[in-house]
## 1
Amino acid sequence: MKLILDISFSSFATGIHQWLVGAVHSEGLVKVIEMVIAGLALLVFLVPLCFILGYMERKVAAFIQVRLGPNRVGPKGTLQIVADTIKLLFKEGLTPNASDKFLFNLAPMIVVVTSMLVMAPIAFAKNFQIWDISIGVLYVSSISSIAVIGILMAGWSSNNKYSLLGAMRSGAQIVSYELSVGLSLISIVILAGSLRMSDIVMSQENGWWIFKGHIPVLISFVIFLIASTAEINRAPFDLAEAEQELTAGFHTEYSGMKFAMFLLAEYINLFVVSAIAATLFLGGWMPFHIGHWHTFNFVMDYIPSSVWFLGKTFAIIFIIMQFRWTFPRLRVDQLLTLEWKYLLPVSMVNVILVTVMAIMGWHF
Amino acid sequence: MSLLGEDIVTEDGEFVINIGPQHPSTHGVLHLKVWLDGETIKRIQPHLGYIHRSIEKMSESLSYRNFIYATSRMDYLSAHINNQACALCVEKGLQVEVPERAKAIRILMAELTRLSSHQLWWGCTGLDLGAVTPFFYAFRERESIMAIMEETCGARLTQNYCVPGGVMYDIHPNFRNRVKDTLKQIRSKFNEYEEILTGNVIFEQRTKGVGYISAEDAISFGCTGPTARGSGVSCDVRKLFPYDGYEKLQFKEILEQGGDCYARYMVRMAEMKQSVFIIEQLIDNIPEGEFQAKTKMVLKLPKGEFYQRVETARGELGVYIVSDGAASPYRIKYRSPNFSNLSALERMATGTKIGDLVAIMSTIDLVIPDVDR
Amino acid sequence: MTTEEIKQSVSALFPDVTYDEAGEFLNVLTDSKGLKPLMQALRRNSEFDFDYLFCLTCIDWKTHLTMVYHMLSKSNNHTVVVKAKIADVNTPEIETVCDIWETANFHEREVFDLFGVKFINHPDLRRIFLDEDWEGFPLRKNYVDENMIEI
Amino acid sequence: MFLKEYFGSIYRSARSLLKGMKLTGYYFTHPKEIQTEEYPDNRATLTMFDRFKGEVTMPHNENNEHRCTGCQACEIACPNGTIKIITKQELQPDGKKKKAIDTFVYHLELCTMCNMCVLACPSDAIVMGQSFEHSVYDKRQLKKVLNQPGSKIMEGVE
């Protein structure tokens, strides 16, 4: 069953490609059509994904907070988020009079588009990837830092003091936490010897990096989790929004669909970050194998690779959600202290350790 | 004071934001005008009165029985203690001896109120600092106290249970068991509070050394309650000027020397345990007897002035009645703890960050209707 | 200090003041002119050391206004009430005490707001609860408002 | 020494954070701890405490009789003017005229449930009811007449 499913992804894609080549006879046009199909497929994937994440967030929060969570619309409240989306769609999208209207309307688009772009090099299953770019990791870390422009834009153009403060916080935060994210990603790149996502996954065929890489990789995994939580502006690092301080931070003035786009971007970012963590540290779609337990490994192989990938991703998403519902928020100077005094030095030393480990071949 | 049409930064290079009247952290309709330098606070100006109902003026036209209910709407989180203060003041004027049973019931209810108020405060402090979950844990325990209130007083928040001469009616037969169950539950949850908030490193960082006020300043600003006790000022009215038989009870006045948000937090956390301790002492020893002294139908205080202070969950509440011998007070003044505590906010928050302002406001534990009255 | 000792010490410094001991606390009666030096002495002299002004209010007696200051000494643990009579009902004025106790700042603004007493040298004398353009002083006995209903 | 402090602080912080996560993790995995009630669904089983002050009611017996004499003690006792009693002179069988209530008007929108009227009532004619679902779309609907149409005062209540 696993074989069938995995083959079907790649053969499906090749099938479409061959059919298109036969039908269109123009390589350029085939490429364009394929890109459109990939984009549409991504969109179709994203909407239910965000519904699931929204539902999951509410239920996780509710269970942690000893309450039931949404339970009215649809079975077990599953359709609540659909109802909310419809509500947001029909709400008036206000644009403040004194705002910079062009930037104000552009900002949510930029935030959403950048978070979608990061989806491209992620391997969702075996041989199932939108774009296996050779500099995958670099691509991810560079594209994801564009999002800060959207946030700064939103904060500035709203012409609201809270928004401006939120945007400034967000700028300082993302710029500094980029470093730690990058350094923790580099440690895996050093071990795997490639920036390509598929290569990194394949390098974990005989064991995930988090197991193979000893303590240094564990440290960089933790640093990645913390820093990426900060980078996607989620609690306890949600200073850009900081409800109790800045009402809603950079998206104070947004309403209706534009607000929904920020929400969408937040969930996509959450997914992307978790997917990257799963790919780099937990072996992506690689099943869980234990040394010489051939029967066990055989059974594990039967679980489809997409399930492995999504399972790992959602486990990390759960951890990040639990962060949000457990911890108080940091203050802005403490946020920077944490980065510059703790995460950055530790990850720098960590990179050296990983390099030594990789050169000496101490990892498994 | 025009809020519209101002540039984001004024001509003097001042960045002014208005926190409130509707804002998630102000716990009501408090309006703070804050002058900022980046994220650092240069100056704060509170604008009050959004919920001013002139309870003092209203009370001037109400009889001595009827004005008590209005004080529930001042500090609604310690409504019972407010009512108790008024009842005590009227009793002082009438020179009525309150039966021992009524006194015990009043203290029990007052301590339960304090406990529930501190629990709500604890949840809100977590909420203000960005941790949403403690709020729900706090409300879980608070709910069982509310059930006690509802069963005996008939209302959850604005009980109006104190009347001049005692309490309105006797405790419910189920009262003892319910209180004991609740105390057991609350005692078992204290370590959860430690785990999720008190011990949390982020929480410590957010509160330690933040919002410092010295003991001299605290006295000068008239701070009372946990706000002053966090600075080491001994001001517990229950100890200094005991009323309703507090002098017979064993409990400690909690003092912390830190003067910062963390110290105020720790004072309240310890006070919760002290309240539990007081209730445990009394719950099996409620004296038998009348729950209300015999009073006349129409109460008339003799000509004169009467001042009664009590310790609410937020500090010292003073009730100052000036009587001209009529059936309603000539002048009544509520010295509300929050009003004085709020005046110290500027001293505490100047030079801190916006995030700290939220922490300071939550550890002062402001209840805005009590500020505005 | 006992009540008698306070009386003696105050009388030694301010021979004009009178006393009223009918109530719970010792009342020191003075007028609006003599208030400020009395208050300064009560705060600064170490034998009094009234460092905690716990209640500041005003009473409208129709013919005159009375400012009432309740003070407590944390160190000596004695209480005194100072009452200052303001004879002029139409333009009541009195010296501020908020340079002695910081808490007086807000409380004097409250009295200004609700009674219309003008505090000389107060740093920020504005209405505190009511709007800037509110007419009249609600806690005065002669205050009328057409929206007020008698129950 | 510096490093020891540095790593010690990291260790302590991580420990305190993990403690919090352990607690939230416990509640996540123990749905039995959930406290919320599903309110409109549990209406059938929901009972308020017998002392709960929901609204002022005037109990009538099976013969449509109440105990209110129209003495207006509650009207005087009410701090907010919630109660208005309109009285009439009723002709007794023996020819004498007697004061009785015509309408007992109760303004629920003004009521603070302070219980003063119930305490003041000399004939126990009014009690506090347990109903709490008072929300209506028009506040005029909150003005209630407590004595039922055609009701009479009970025998023997003075």
Note: The mean pLDDT of chain C is 83.
## 2
Amino acid sequence: MFAELLQYLFAGLTSGAIYALAGLGFAIIYNASHVINFAQGEFIMIGGMATSMMVAAGLPLPLAIALAVVVTMMVGVALEKFAIEPARNSDVVTIIIITIGASIFLRGLAQVVWDKEFHSLPAFSGETPINVAGATLMPQSIWVVGISVLVIVALWWFFNRTLFGKAMLATSFNRLAAQLMGIGVKKVLMVSFALSALLGAVGGIVVTPITFTNYEAGIMLGLKGFSAAVLGGLGNGLGAIVGGLVVGIAEALASGYLSSAYKDAVAFVIILFVLFFLPNGLFGKKGTDRV
Amino acid sequence: MRSLVKWGVAACAVFAAGTFAGTAQAADTIKIGAFLSVTGPASFLGEPEKKTLEMYVDRLNKDGGVRGKKVELIHYDDAGAPDKAVTFAKRLIQNDNVDIIIGGTTTGTSMAAIKVVEPAGVPFISLAGGIDIIDPVKKWVFKTPHTDRMAAEKVFLDMKKKGISKVAMISEDAGFGKSGHDQSLKVAPIYGIQIVADEVYSPKDPDVTAQLTKIKNTAGVQAVFNFGFGQGPAIVTKNFKQLGMSVPLYQSHGVASKDFIKLAGEAAEGIRLPAAGLVVAEQLGATDPQKPVVTAFKKEYEAAFKSDVSTFAGHAYDGLQIALAAILRAGSTDKEKVRAEIEKTSGYVGTGGLVSMSPEDHMGLSLSAFRMVEVKKGDWVLAD
Amino acid sequence: MSLLKVEGLSKEFGGIHAIEDLSFTINPGTIHSIIGPNGAGKTTLFNLITAVYTPSCGKILFDDKDIAGKKPYELAAMGMSRTFQNLQIFFNMPAIENVMVGHHLHLNRRFLPSFLRLPSVIRKDRECRDYCASLMEFVGLAKYVTADAAQMPYGALKRLEIARALAAKPRLLLLDEPAAGLNATESREIDEVIKKVAQTGVTVVLVEHDMKMVMGISDAILAIDYGRKLAEGTPAEVRANPDVVAAYLGAHA
Amino acid sequence: MWKTARIGGLAALATILALAPLGFPNAYFYDVAVKALFNAVVCVGLNLLIGYAGQISLGHAGFFALGAYGSAILTSTYKVAPLPAMLISAAAVGLLAYLVGRPILKLKGHYLAMATLGIGIIIHIVLKTEARITGGPDGMSVDPFSLMGFTMMGDRMWYWAAAGLLVLTVWLSLNLIDSPVGRALRAVHGSEVGAEVVGVDTSSYKVMVFVVSAVFASLVGSLFAHKDGFITPDIGSFFRSVEFVVMVVLGGMASTFGSVIGAVILTLLPQVLTFVEDYEAMVLGGIMMGMMIFLPKGLLPAVVSQFRKRGAAR
């Protein structure tokens, strides 16, 4: 009984950590620009695809990872520079369509540059399952969870301890005030895209040994990441993590105890219910309209 | 409001220009139309299908075409969407005036296109697995791949031989897996198989250990049967191993390509599945009539594209060969004649097996076309 | 009989009392001003009276009816209308249509007649347009009748809000800093508009910083600070109140 | 101003629709045109919600699919005639939209996007899973549309029906916008609280326009099902919902004719772009980005303002 529950929780934790990483990317860009970047999933895809293609071409894994991260960050910066910045003063919906266009474009690019096959990476530390109280866990899942934790700590440090990170936070609270304080909003925007691209790439790389990747892998991860970020409360990093874990664990428990066909539906029903009672997500700011 | 008119005219002009481009009527060509899911969730089926058609049509033309006529291939990407398939089928028939249609990568797109093809009276060879495509028989519709029902039958036959009677199913909740799942449930009783657990997953799920745990904890499961394609079955396979499940794991013909073994890695060892002779080309007996065909196709495909051949490429190859042979026999591209000749296809040796069609059977494959294979040391091994 | 009666009203935001135990009454046919330093809770008070916020405790009676649980649009139907300190203009619409939205309650609000463009709807709409144009003229916006709201200057938008509020034909009109951000001339013009409005029998409640204006047009004044009542009475009485002088006028001096 | 644009626009639309078939050499063109017009009707309805009332929905394909499946199931399994089946489906979808709309339309911005997306995905999952009723992911056949012994057959007939429907929809939409209700909707977009304090019951209007747009989607879904004769749950997928929104925004938010143009362009593009083959996705994504960067207000408003500028210069 308990072993069963534990196994479901492990399953949920693995998926949840993946969703959380995807959600964090949304949170960072939202914070800096109030833009929802629907191409976030494509960052994840590019990270995973680039790494596995380079490994397949004979590069050692660490080098492939480093190069893939750089490539993804360049894509992120290019996206910001050429698509988001020129439209900075447009409607939210307009920018959303731009990012959707970008995601279609990047998927198209990946399918032309690479291919349409599924690709994998060797697990970082073997494929021997770890047994815990009758339930099993793959070492790669621990990598995913571990990297997530590391990323959260690093982000916390960046936003609370470095000058630039603080400046970015300030921009999210009040763009005008930040501008008056001499913070370059453009630069903040660019760094936020680079950062979330980095996050996406790292996420894409650590999950590829588990979920594999192909040019369309970003669609589902992007969707789940968005759900995680909204459930947690937009712009809240911790919220995105909790949101991702809630979605992942809800799915696993639903397929274990209810119906695997309806597990995604269960996750969305939970999100809807949370939003009915907490219209700004779990940790979102309860803003009262100033009138 | 003039702008509206202007834009309307401009749009129509662009539209017309785009659709007429490249379809200039050449009198002496045989036009083969294809709508395939080259992008979208079934792209790794559609892509090799497209490549195969292109390669062989090219080769054919270099060799002088069919009876001195060039063959023109017109293909569109339906992205796996049935409504797009309908539109492209119409485009092929009405606008491109093709003589025959090959395609429909998925059962959904094929079924949708049938609504257009049947009334228009154009021979149509589908490359999708669903049995609904040819059962009941439709006058103009044929197909080359084995049906999902056959795959299930082959698997259950193998299980029966091994004395397995209680089976857990886990299937993908998208088209291929869902249809395969339904057919499996239908034929299981015939082979004395009892489905004691029945789980599903979505094509892009990162983890299915929850579903497998449920199966693991179901009493009396003697084997697990997974119906799906894409990366899902590889994840199932990995999770299966992770949970230390020891019963035999069967997969469907949907994963019969080297890529699957690459993705699933060591976890794939010992997996059994029904597959066409193509994946075990070299291991076929020397007297096997399929041997020369599949070895040649495999060699040509792999030389041309530097990637492992998949059964899906084979389906397209078979479709093309059957079509061309029928056109040759008919002596013209008269649609009714070609249709009749396709129906008379007999003893064609293809990558999928021996094809003998009849007015009652528009697929013409028998269960013997499937071979049971097992993964051993990272490769497919004939296990019959 | 009082038009508006506030009893023991309080509002907390995360432990901070924006309004605390406030009681007062407003009589019909008067111009009533609420004054207080920045952050005294004036706008919060407006938001409570118009049901944009829900009180933490206390009661608000409009026409002797408790407004608890009522929505702002229901209060509008009862005869209460307001303007905003932070403009709430419909910038996506022409100026006149902003005012026409104000007249919404007096038009056919059902969906089907609008959808089918019944002649009665068209006729009423045409009348409404004329009426709203006259209202714009009334507040001094005659030259903006055909303008888009997005093209109008700040001062004009303030009046546009007044016109919109008037289009609802309120008995109680709450104006939140109508003169804020305006120059002296514009202030005086607003002043005139408010007086004209009051003459038509509409009760006006005003939040305003412009002391000259407040003292000049008010029949009664309520001074608050930190959400609590400091003083209440005629302009002369309030001006003489030492607490008010200390907390508000003093701070400004 | 309004009046001339209204009547002139309607007349222009009707004229274009009447003349367009002159350029259609065969049934395939009619088929594409019908799909464009169907999408246009959905988008005109959706534009009332997104463009005018300022509320996003990423789940409208779900309502479209429910309409399609409602008609399909009622006509095939329960032998209901197509017209009542269509109306029953639309009523049911309207009721559903009302029930879910009441709570979710309290949400704002991205949270509303999330909630509507969730509704759409749940509908999609149900259609996929309840295979006994819906035929599952491989879809189900739908009988042709017939009314009093007369059967809608062929793309030409569908074209005229769709064209008529679009003109009617545009007329209704224009009516609504320029009416007390329409003003209230636009006011909701401008400032919810500003509308509320002058007597606009904003939450009811939001729900109402949500219901109306859902009913439009459902009706078109029913017609689509009868026309194509075969439907799969993927017509209700998240991508289709996004596609509808893109059509509305690309054409120009809060522009009824813009929605029509957006729908037509986005339906035609994939047909026109077949010649770029593997680069189709890149080109399509690039066009979307480019249009939104350079014409952030959408196509039609940009064109109109160009004309106005030129007119003023003259």
Note: DSSP finds ten helices and ten strands in chain C.
